[in-house]
Amino acid sequence: MIPQPLHRIVYIALLTASATIIGIVESLFPSPFPFAPGAKFGFANLIVLMAIFTLKKTDVLLLVMIKLLLTGLFTGFSVFLYSLAGGVLSLLAMYLAKTLGPRLVSLIGISLVGGFFHNVGQLLTATWVAQTPTVLLYLPWLAFFGLLAGFFIGVAGNALLYRIKPITALFEKENKIWMTRP
Q1: CB contact burial 82-95 (16+ within 10 A = b; e otherwise)
Q2: DSSP string covering 8-73, please?
Q3: What is the Cα–Cα distance from 31 to 39, expressed in whole angstroms?
Q4: pLDDT tens digit sequence for 72-124
Q5: Whole-angstrom distance between the N-terminal and C-terminal Cα of the chain?
Q6: What are the CA-CA distances from residue 160 to residues 20, 58, 108, 109, 117 (Å)?
Q7: What residue ranges define each of the domains in the chain, with the CATH number in brackets?
Q8: Rounded percentage of the chain residues whose pLDDT exceeds 90
Q9: Which phi and psi (to 5°) does residue 130 adopt?
Q10: Which residues does 78 contact at the CB level (< 8 Å), separation at least 6?
Q11: In terms of Cα–Cα distance, which of 134, 33, 42 is closest to 94?
Q12: Which residues does 159 contact at the CB level (< 8 Å), separation at least 6?
């Protein structure tokens, strides 16, 4: 039998590879919203959302950082810079929302928070790069699409979370309360 730590490493590697490939493939296509350039669905965030509910925080941070670095190698430094800001702020916001517990916020709600704060992080970076706060005028548009994407990713994540339930040996105790249907 394979030792437990090896299971966790393999699981992290599979999630990281999946998120990286999805992110790279998604970057090859133009924005699906012509009136909101740069807005994407963020399908790779589905993998990050699953990681939040199945791994330790340090493992999720490792996954996100490796995913960002690998994706940045294929998409360029500027994309990496914006993705880093959006990804880290989004991850922090989702973990803060998750601390409220399943009675107050659902997995879909956590995904909505992530979608919104990902765009906030990117726009704060754009404000810093452009040296003008007028970039923040784009926030209502990006917030709308971030929430829309967050909703769909959350719905997909909610369905997927119950499909991966057999991997319970990898879950933290605190995450088990999210795994039971109300």
Answers
A1: bbbbbbbbbbebbb
A2: HHHHHHHHHHHHHHHHHHHHTSPPS-TTSTT----THHHHHHHHHHHS-HHHHHHHHHHHHHHHHH
A3: 6
A4: 898 888 788 988 999 999 999 999 999 998 889 999 999 999 999 999 999 99
A5: 35
A6: 18, 22, 12, 15, 23
A7: 4-173 (1.10.1760.20)
A8: 51
A9: -80, -10
A10: none
A11: 42
A12: none
Q: Are 85 and 125 in contact (CB under 8 A)?
A: yes
Question: Is 158 or 33 the better-scoring residue by pLDDT?
Answer: 158
| Nearest 10 degrees: Cα torsion 138, 110, 87, 148 | -40
**Angle, in degrees to the nearest 10, between helices 107-130 and 77-98:** 140
Tell me the three state secondary structure of residue 75. Answer: helix
Task: Enumerate long-range contacts of 76-81, CB under 8 Å, 24 or more apart.
Answer: 79/27, 81/125, 81/129
- Looking at residue 163, its pLDDT comes to 74
Q: Which of 122, 115, 119, 123 has the alpha carbon at shortest distance from 97?
A: 115
Query: Hey, CA dihedral for 130, 135, 136, 139, is it positive or negative?
Result: negative
Longest dimension (CA), the chain: 58
pLDDT band at 182 (very low <50, low <70, confident <90, very high): very low
Structure tokens that stand for 75 in this block: 């998409």
